[in-house]
Amino acid sequence: xxSAKIYYDSDAxxxxxxxxQIVFLGFGNQGAAQAQNLRDTGIPNDKILIANRADxxxxxxxxxxxxxxxxxxxxxxxxxxxxxxxxxQVQPKVFNGSFVPHLKENVTIVIxxxxxxxxKLLEFKSTQNVxxxxxxxxxxxxxxxxxxxxxxxxxxxxxQDGTGNALPVALAVSKVIGATKAGAISSSAREETMMDLxxxxxxxxxxxxxxxxxxNVLQKAGCSDEALCYEMWMSKEPAEIFERAAEEGFITxxxxxxxxxxxxxxxxxxxxxxxxxxxxxxxxxxxxILSGKFxxxxxxxxxxxxxxGDENPLNELYRRxxxxxxxxxxxxxxxxxxxxxx
Length: 342
Ligand code: NDP
Prior knowledge:
The chain is α/β, with parallel strands linked by helices. The protein has helices spanning 29-41, 56-63, 72-78, 91-99, 115-118, 139-147, 166-176, 189-220, 225-234, 237-248, 259-271, 275-290, 293-301, 313-322, 325-336, 338-341, and strands spanning 6-7, 22-25, 48-51, 67-69, 81-84, 108-111, 129-135, 154-160, 184-186.
């Protein structure tokens, strides 16, 4: 496979943003971090507008000295660059309903996740730029790394080049929020969404299932709930393993384990042919994700996901997950060892 192109600060020209009106739709996790980074890089405060409903997020933006607009239509009409930083599931309703009819013909729309673009849930005019600048970190890290003078991993792509200069603008946008400092990786909404959704819908479900079944087998073999919870995750050993994997290498980190553990892990992993897992991953990727089946189902559930109690389908899934032996045992252990866990 070809290597991805990596863009650095020297590839981007901030002059492209000079005099442009920047609008942030949303001042949450990513919005608050990216708006502050952008202002600290030198965009004047009077060229930044936070579009947000009148509530705590808007109050936070005002407290941080930003100009806030509650009327989305007014905000849309003046935007040269629009960052869409509200949750993915509400973007179609808010963006298509309140922004699309009022946006400039040559606006650059910046998304931080590929989902709604890949599944064509947002409406764009062919003259508009659509670019993805997608940090691979939560907002607090996007901000704290910037403050420390460091970069953060980020994907960048052009999804629609309406003006003919979408890539330079995407790179300027990446630089101004601090994303090209460590190198922004050229990607696409398709790639980003495939990786995100496959991890969410197949990789992590398998990991949850493997922990659940290992727990069940060991519990049946006589291990105590306390010992199991600590051994398997409360000691934070899995977190440490993944941290080492990120820092030193996915396989290299094994060298920190005992010889017996290294032998057991490598021998065990190489003996598993992975055929069933591969089939499951391929089926999820092609028949559930790329076919649009999941996205259609999720869109249908959208209203329910805002509801309280039993009517919310997510709450029903939590209820079922809480009935597993692993979850029930953990609840007992946490209640009993509350002091130890603080
Ligand atoms: P948040 O959940 O933090 O967004 C909160 C913001 O969205 C607030 O300003 C909130 O304002 C606004 N909002 C929520 N609901 C509505 C609504 N119905 N109408 C108008 N505004 C609304 O989002 P994130 O920052 O987590 O995500 C933003 C984008 O960034 C998404 O595309 C996400 O995939 C992407 N992303 C997120 C990452 C993360 O770490 N969370 C990492 C990388 C990308 P109010 O409720 O006041 O209206």
